[in-house]
Amino acid sequence: MNDIVHIPVLADEIISMLKGYEKIVVDATCGNGGHSYIFATQLADNIQRLFCFDKDTETLKIAQNRLNKFSFVEFVPESYTAIKRVLENANLRATFVLFDLGLSMWQIKKSNRGFTFHENEPLDMRYDIREGEPLSHFLKKMLPEEIENILKTYGEVKKASKIAVSIVRERKRTEFKTTLELVNLLRHLGLPTSEIQKVFMAFRIYVNRELHTLVEGIKSAIEATQKGGRIAFITYHSIEDRIVKKISKIEGMKKVEPYPIFPTQKEIKQNRAARSAKLRVFEKGVDDVKETNYTIIDSMVSSFPAPSAR
Ligand SMILES: C[S@@+](CC[C@H](N)C(=O)[O-])C[C@H]1O[C@@H](n2cnc3c(N)ncnc32)[C@H](O)[C@@H]1O
Questions:
Q1: Do 169 and 216 reside in the same domain of the chain?
Q2: CA 124 to ligand 1 center in whole angstroms
Q3: Predicted confidence band of residue 66 (pLDDT cuts 50, 70, 90)
Q4: Is 70 exceeded by the pLDDT of residue 2?
Q5: Domain that holds residue 82
Q6: Are 216 and 210 in contact (CB under 8 A)?
Q7: Does ligand 1 have an atom closer than 6 angstroms to the CB of 33?
Q8: Are 200 and 236 members of one domain?
Q9: Is residue 142 in a domain?
Q10: pLDDT in tens, 141-190
Q11: Is residue 112 assigned to a domain?
């Protein structure tokens, strides 16, 4: 239990959106199971199935230890892009899906995968180490223009060009295998902590294809949800929020009021990680959404940098 360091965000607000929709629940980003644990304990009488997805298998093991005692919980160590397939195989359609985007406090503090610049760790940044490549590999081979584009697009980093050129120049001498090697270079260029944080966030979004995957996940969730079901998103980053907002423009999907929902000052005081959170909930008003309607979200990410799909 000492492993659990993540406090679930907007939990009361999610519960009130979930009531009446709790038959077939999907936690698309289960993490250590913070939200799912609350669902399972508070709504146990009404939940028939609770699917817990997370592509970070290590993180999901912690959730498993907490939630194993609930017979209605099923763990899926896969990306949320697989929601549609997994529910189809179970012959079910969801009544509620929750996406709590980004990364967990456990991943920052305990995963040793380079999500934090406060510790010296391997420069990996993958949620799922079974696929893709660690950041250190990309930094060895990317062109300066590619690095600059990533830093500008995902982090709005001020010295993007200078950082990109410096990484490429410095890699003759430095392997960039650890967070410290990257942080030393960024400090040498005079970046304040707030900008270093943005550099780390931008690289993390790139390595995990986060926004492209989000778009695929949204489609998968919409298709796996039954008519009248709900899909909820907690976003922490302006670009992911812009993508999520577009869901209301998809034919058959409508906003659920209040929209959006922000954490209270009390919650922010107790949990700083909640400070940039926004909750947006949508209801599916049709049986099936036509494939052509997804261009509205596809076009949001089509020009964004990403490693090739895997
Ligand atoms: C903010 S945390 C979720 C915390 C959780 N709601 C809780 O309260 O404990 C986000 C989680 O999403 C996971 N994640 C990121 N991309 C994913 C994807 N494509 N599919 C499934 N999980 C993903 C991360 O590994 C992380 O555990």
A1: no
A2: 17
A3: very high
A4: no
A5: 11-106+210-301
A6: no
A7: yes
A8: no
A9: yes
A10: 999 999 999 999 999 999 999 999 999 999 999 999 999 999 999 999 99
A11: no
